[in-house]
């Protein structure tokens, strides 16, 4: 198990390094100058040149790449071009919103999606199954910004139960901070819950036909007991894969949802940083996202090993 | 997405009206703004978003610009101007302090202008102050500016965000923790979220009615609409005109329509054929139906213009009839210019609602006279690079929001590349003229030349469209300078 984990970890580290290099050069190709952006269209060329020098944009690309990667290893992500503040601090502030948001969305989607999927599989072919699958289809098709706007209209504008957006920092009032994340995490979670319900249902339906269920039933278990004790555990494997992949989608989804709910999260930070050509900020944020996604995959891989010992043995020479 | 939202919002606006606005704190205001400033130092960045938060709220200049664009005293209580218009002597207010408690005096003024004029200055508008020859401290509350030549707009320029007074001890940190002398002190900036301001109790002037102000950054129009309807914010100074209908009939809100300094133009690359041909530019001017463009691009909220000058300015002259809408005349001019079948060109559009919409309308208006336009959507950073810096474009649409920026046309290196020595000489004279009547005469002459030369297509003046809680008063209706001045804002019953 340790060797298995170590090999996965090396792969994880190599992915990160490669991603850092690719991101650096790809973003260097984008047209646009952060100094010009900050100073506006009427600024004098002299002022723009001075600011470029201040920002350290004069150095050749490979020098900037090396100092960037070297800095990150020491935890220094550089200074934001447009905001003139350390990138690491900016990212950290934003993660305080995006991380809880994604985790909440993940929990909500599991809590809604899995039971619905199980219920649907148990009622296969009957009216509740059809109804749930139609809803799930709808949930997959409808974009989360639309969900977001509808939730705002009903619960914030109409009923005034929850804020329509914005965020109160955790340190100021944790309860208000949490309230601010309810609607956005719901908007993020609903499409994910729909996907999970469908995957869970399919996996369970597959499992129900398997030999071990027949064996379990032959031992005298009812179908419900057999599915619950043996089926769900076996159906979890594909669900786990989807869950890992979904994490990446959730993070991408935050870009849109954070705009709809004007939340100060990582997604919105990236969105503005790109339009302002604050490349060092975009790079830092992208790295954080890649770490999050590859780390999730890494954890999913390890969990596979735990859920299914056969995989672990195959992974060890 | 906009339309679905709007009808739903209209229905729910009614529900909102029934449930009643939460009783607002009578001395606090929460304002939604679309763009978050990258930094909060107006002397090191030109983004309009900076001035929206800090101008006349946190920072003050020697002079200040009022709602009508007129120069008023600021940190300088009075001034005298020498007969040759070269020496300005300012008397400063006494008892003024910066928000960190340090005292304001003539040394701060000198420091501010030395900093603007330094070789490594990052002031976006250094050129406005380079005619200052020297700044001399006479005594702690008297300061003298000596100019190299008369500058007609000198007092106005001193009132701009670029020339607010900063202190030696705090200037370097103003990007993130701005410290000025204004009626509001900076409290906190949650990046991506909000900026908090608090009334500065030891303020030297009359204390404002508000004790607290929060700026919330909401980029999405739909999100801004719900924030307003849900009472999460009390207003916004400039709202997307296409969604104003949601608030116009709602008694809980008032819509304030005013003027801005934003002249929207069809920017034309005058260096490049066929646009270097006057007849072609005249033909394009005849092909523009401004009324249709304004109705389509700003839902009717713009004012047609015939020259790059703001209609609310005292020197304005209406030149919209220089080349009236006349497709037939346009075709004839094109034929005379050697393009009987028209020509093809590209139109680069930055990501601004009015630009993208105007672009589509202009493309169809031009097609009617034989000019085929290819629309190219670009991001703003790319627009700055391609169009503004590299002059790699045929046509573009953009609003020039700087006050009194007709001088751009005297710069042949400017992106539209208009090179007319006669005009350059005229602007030089205008800049050096102090007498108001004479200035007006020169400004009108300048506008007329640009209209006749059809340097760019002159479309409309952007309107300021504020949406505010009906019980809030004292906001500026017009925007003669970039900023959202909180000084006079108060709640009424």
Automatic annotation (TrEMBL), chain A:
Its main location: membrane. The keyword Transport applies. Residues 95-299 form the ABC transmembrane type-1 domain. It is found in: Cell membrane. It is a multi-pass membrane protein. InterPro entries: BPD_transp_1_N, MetI-like, MetI-like_sf. It comes from the Bacteria. It holds the Pfam family BPD_transp_1_N. Keywords: Cell membrane, Membrane, Transmembrane, Transmembrane helix, Transport. The chain crosses the membrane at residues 9-27, 95-119, 131-156, 176-197, 235-261, 281-307. Belongs to the binding-protein-dependent transport system permease family. PANTHER family: DIPEPTIDE TRANSPORT SYSTEM PERMEASE PROTEIN DPPB-RELATED. This is Peptide ABC transporter.
TrEMBL record, chain B:
Residues 71-401 form the Solute-binding protein family domain. It is found in: Periplasm. Keywords: Signal. It comes from the Bacteria. InterPro entries: Peptide/Ni-bd, SBP_5, SBP_5_dom. Residues 1-24 form the signal peptide. Belongs to the bacterial solute-binding protein 5 family. This is ABC transporter substrate-binding protein.
């Amino acid at each position: 198990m340790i060797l298995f984990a170590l090999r996965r970890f090396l792969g994880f580290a190599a992915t990160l390094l490669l991603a850092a290099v690719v991101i650096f050069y790809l973003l260097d190709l984008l047209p646009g100058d952060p100094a010009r952006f900050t100073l506006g269209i009427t600024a004098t060329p002299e002022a723009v040149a001075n600011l470029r020098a201040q920002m350290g944009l004069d150095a050749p690309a490979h020098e900037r790449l090396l100092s960037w990667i070297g800095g990150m290893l020491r935890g220094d992500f550089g200074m934001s071009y447009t905001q003139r503040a350390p990138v690491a601090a900016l990212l950290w502030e934003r993660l305080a919103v995006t991380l809880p948001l994604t985790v909440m969305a993940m929990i909500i989607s599991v809590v809604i999606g899995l039971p619905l999927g199980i219920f649907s599989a148990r009622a296969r072919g009957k009216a509740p199954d059809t109804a749930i699958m139609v809803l799930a289809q709808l949930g997959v098709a409808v974009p989360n910004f639309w969900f977001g706007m509808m939730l705002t209209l009903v619960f914030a504008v109409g009923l005034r139960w929850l804020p329509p957006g914005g965020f109160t920092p955790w340190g100021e009032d944790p309860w208000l901070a949490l309230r601010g994340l309810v609607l956005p995490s719901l908007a993020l979670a609903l499409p994910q819950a729909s996907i999970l319900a469908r995957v869970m249902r399919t996996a369970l339906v597959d499992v129900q036909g398997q030999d071990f269920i027949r064996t379990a039933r032959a031992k005298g278990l009812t179908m419900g007991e057999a599915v619950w004790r043996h089926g769900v555990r076996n159906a979890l494997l594909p669900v786990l894969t989807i869950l890992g992949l979904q994490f990446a989608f959730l993070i991408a989804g935050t870009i849109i949802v954070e705009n709809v709910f004007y939340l100060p999260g990582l997604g919105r930070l990236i969105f503005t940083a790109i339009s302002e050509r604050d490349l060092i900020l975009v790079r830092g944020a992208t790295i954080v996202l890649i770490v999050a996604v590859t780390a999730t995959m890494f954890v999913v891989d390890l969990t596979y090993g735990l859920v299914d010992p056969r995989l672990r043995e195959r992974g060890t020479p | 997405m906009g339309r679905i939202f709007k009808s739903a919002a209209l229905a729910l606006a009614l529900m909102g009206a029934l449930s009643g606005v939460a009783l607002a704190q009578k001395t606090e205001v929460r304002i939604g703004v679309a763009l978050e400033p990258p930094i909060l130092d107006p002397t090191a960045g030109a983004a309009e978003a900076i001035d929206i938060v800090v101008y006349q709220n946190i920072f003050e200049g020697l002079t200040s610009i009022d709602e009508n664009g007129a120069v008023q005293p600021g940190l300088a209580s009075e001034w005298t101007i020498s007969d040759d218009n070269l020496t300005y002597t300012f008397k400063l207010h006494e008892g003024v302090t910066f928000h960190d408690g340090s005292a304001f005096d003539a040394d701060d003024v000198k420091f501010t202008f030395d900093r603007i004029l330094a070789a490594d200055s990052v002031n976006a508008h250094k050129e406005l102050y380079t005619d200052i020859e020297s700044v001399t401290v006479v005594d702690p509350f008297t300061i003298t500016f000596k100019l190299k030549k008369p500058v007609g707009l000198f007092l106005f320029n001193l009132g701009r965000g670029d020339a607010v007074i900063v202190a030696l001890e705090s200037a370097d940190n103003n990007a993130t923790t701005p410290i000025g002398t204004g009626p509001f002190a900076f409290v906190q900036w949650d990046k991506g979220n909000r900026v908090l301001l608090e009334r500065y109790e030891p303020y030297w002037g009359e204390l404002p009615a508000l004790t607290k102000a929060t700026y919330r950054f909401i980029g999405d129009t739909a999100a801004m609409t719900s924030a307003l309807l849900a009472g999460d914010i009390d207003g916004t100074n400039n709202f997307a005109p296409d969604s104003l209908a949601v608030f116009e009939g709602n008694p809980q809100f008032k819509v304030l329509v005013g003027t801005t300094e934003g002249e929207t133009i069809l920017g034309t690359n005058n260096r490049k054929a066929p646009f270097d041909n006057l007849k072609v530019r005249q033909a394009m001017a005849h092909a523009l139906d401004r009324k249709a463009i304004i109705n389509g691009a700003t839902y009717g909220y713009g004012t047609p213009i015939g020259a790059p000058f703001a209609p609310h300015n005292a020197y304005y002259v209406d030149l919209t009839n220089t080349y009236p809408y006349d497709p037939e005349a346009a075709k004839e001019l094109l034929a005379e210019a050697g393009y009987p079948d028209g020509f093809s060109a590209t139109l680069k559009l930055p990501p601004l609602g009015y630009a993208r919409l105007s672009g589509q309308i202009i493309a169809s208006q031009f097609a009617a006279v034989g000019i085929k336009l290819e629309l190219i959507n670009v991001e703003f950073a790319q627009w700055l690079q391609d169009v503004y810096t590299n002059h790699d474009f045929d046509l573009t649409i953009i609003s020039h929001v700087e006050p009194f920026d007709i001088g751009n046309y005297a710069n042949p290196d400017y992106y539209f590349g208009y090179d007319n020595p006669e005009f350059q000489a005229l602007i030089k004279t205008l800049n050096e003229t102090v007498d108001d009547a004479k200035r007006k005469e020169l400004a009108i002459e300048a506008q007329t030349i640009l209209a006749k030369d059809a340097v760019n297509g002159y479309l409309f003046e952007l309107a300021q469209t504020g949406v505010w809680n009906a019980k809030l008063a004292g906001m500026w209706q017009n925007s003669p300078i970039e900023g959202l001045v909180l000084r006079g804002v108060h709640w009424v019953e």
